[in-house]
């Protein structure tokens, strides 16, 4: 099983909002073959009656009464034990499904973020380590004496991206690092073509715009845009900011696009000293004619913007973050059933940008499935940024109208007063004449 270090795993869990984190813990327990149900916000119950409070969703009362507290920083099950349970307590296929469902990337992608592509961990035996309380253990029985106050959890974690072959570049705190990968990497077999170059890659099947030692970011961005345009897909954009190595802010956007519709959800915690890279401002739903945006005090309705929404945004990020001083192919792999390559980048031509390193996962056609970039902000001392773009489920994504849309109309009163304009002639329910979302 690919190695995923604790820091990378904790960072992925931290990206989840409170409800998603609770759902992830429940799914992890079910993957262990245990029956567990959600009985309240952040509160799970096993069939034997014991309860788990998952921070930060669980309130103080639920936490005080829980048998087991799941909290990344200081719980009965903390980041270390949750990592052990996930990596060694369930089998590879189950864990791969969980990472794909909750973290928006494959198990191999998480391993690559850890800076250890090609290494493997022992296959799970199906039983969790003794140190992870699942049912009745002395630690669980004593847990009630450890009343942990509910609250937003921040974790001082290191985030890794691949900088050069065999090197993991850490930043942040709380990481002991990872053993470097040597130059000898055993590539995944790709079709029947031999891998003969020094980096284990045959140039004849590299993606458009990619050679073993150079990236034409404009060509690759254009090919990627052509591959996602007029298809359904799921794109996520994560922006993390660190101050002097400590986590300061996290912003995550998840956008599902199918046909004329899209739905975007935004999760944001902490504060930022820089303006986060973003595709949308807030939770959004759009059909062929209207765009609805969710505010704290209401919903705004406006005409849907023209243009290739999100397609051009993705191409722009690919051009920008793959415009680098040096790049190289470091490993072959398989992504979404197709041959692909991991790229490592270093440096940034923009004046003043330092410690810029990154990685990208690109399939043979030129679809960029994942792009991660880390750099120090040139204008703000001590500020480091990590941006991660991930594209998945191309041709396999559907869009459902979110519940918060409710009975919104085309003349919906907007947040702060006024109305939404009433495009298409008058005050009509949004989606009054459904436009089926195409898939594929």
Based on secondary structure, the structural category is alpha+beta
Principal-axis shape: globular
Mean pLDDT: 74
Q: SSE order in H/E notation?
A: HHEEEHEHHHHEEEEHEEEEEEHEEEEE
**Strand-residue proportion:** 25-35%
CATH architecture of the largest domain: Clam
What is the spatial order of strands in the main beta sheet?
A: 14-13-12-11-10-9-19-18-17-16-15
Determine the N-to-C terminus distance: 32 Å
Total count of helical runs of at least 4 residues: 9
Largest sheet: 11 strands, antiparallel
Fraction of residues in helix: 10-25%
Description:
With 440 residues, this protein is α+β, with helices and mostly antiparallel strands. It folds into 2 domains: 6-145, no CATH class; 186-440, outer membrane lipoprotein receptor (LolB), chain A (Clam), CATH 2.50.20. 20% of the residues lie in helices and 29% in strands. The protein is built from 9 helices and 19 strands. It has helices spanning 6-15, 18-31, 60-65, 79-88, 92-103, 107-113, 138-141, 217-228, 311-321; strands spanning 36-40, 43-46, 51-54, 68-70, 159-164, 167-171, 210-211, 214-215, 233-243, 246-258, 261-270, 284-286, 290-295, 298-303, 326-335, 338-346, 354-363, 368-376, 383-392. The strands form 4 sheets. An 11-stranded antiparallel β-sheet has the order 14-13-12-11-10-9-19-18-17-16-15, with helices on one face. It has a 4-stranded mixed β-sheet with strand order 1-2-3-4. It has a two-stranded antiparallel ribbon with strand order 5-6. Strand 12 and strand 13 (290-295) form a beta hairpin. The longest helix has 14 residues, at 18-31. The two termini are 32 Å apart.
